[in-house]
Design a protein that fits this description.
Blueprint lengths: L2 H23 L5 H23 L7 H24 L4 H16 L1 H14 L4 H13 L2 H9 L8 H4 L13 H26 L5
Helix pairs in contact: 1-2, 1-3, 1-4, 1-7, 2-3, 3-4, 3-7, 3-9, 5-6
């Protein structure tokens, strides 16, 4: 595997922790400073991906950037929502990181549930939807299928989980990116609304 692909697959996890850390470090700064710090983390990683992409093909950078920017919005939204709920700064960072890990591990914790449902005679359509959903919300699989057109379920490490035995859809980087962005905006708007309600009324 090239350095570019290795970095691309690791990017959602790096951003999951990096964006949350940037927001935590700028917790008492103006919103503009926080946006610059967070954007700097994302921009630095995208630049590194662009530089390493020349070892393979820069054509992947556009879709990859869309996935990672929208993913960063989701992580930031989770952090801001927790912060608005008066959660301590360190715990906000942990929650945002755990949210990223939760979505990146969908196939690991959903796989046994899907397999157990299949063993109990669940309908093929239900199995199809569950496997497809577990990959649509997972940036790791979105990058693999949607950007690099790689069937990870047939890679030996994932093949042992048995999901390749069932029919399933494949993630689209455009649809999943839109979903991440919308979810991030929902969390962000909820945070903004909560902060406005908590402000003291003007005399």
């Amino acid at each position: 595997m090239s350095l570019f692909r290795l970095l691309a697959y690791a990017s959602p996890l790096l951003l999951g922790f990096g964006v949350a850390a940037a927001l935590a470090l700028t917790a008492r700064r103006p919103a503009k400073h926080r946006a610059i710090a967070t954007g700097g983390v994302v921009a630095a990683l995208l630049l590194l991906l662009l530089l390493t992409s020349f070892s393979e093909s820069p054509k992947y950078c556009g879709p990859l950037a869309a996935v990672l920017v929208s993913w960063s919005l989701l992580v930031a939204g989770i952090y801001m929502a927790a912060e608005t709920a008066k959660v301590p700064r360190d715990l906000c960072q942990i929650l945002a990181g755990l949210g990223a890990c939760f979505l990146m591990s969908t196939l690991f914790w959903m796989g046994p549930l899907i397999r157990a449902a299949a063993d109990r005679g669940a309908a093929g359509d239900a199995i199809y939807r569950r496997i497809t959903l577990s990959m649509d919300v997972n940036p790791f699989f979105v990058i693999a299928y949607g950007v690099f057109d790689t069937d990870l379920l047939r890679v030996p490490f994932f093949y042992r989980m048995g999901m390749a035995d069932f029919q399933h859809g494949t993630p689209s980087w455009g649809i999943s990116s839109g979903g991440f962005a919308v979810a991030g905006l929902v969390f962000g708007l909820a945070a903004l609304a909560g902060r406005r309600r908590s402000r003291p009324a003007a005399p």
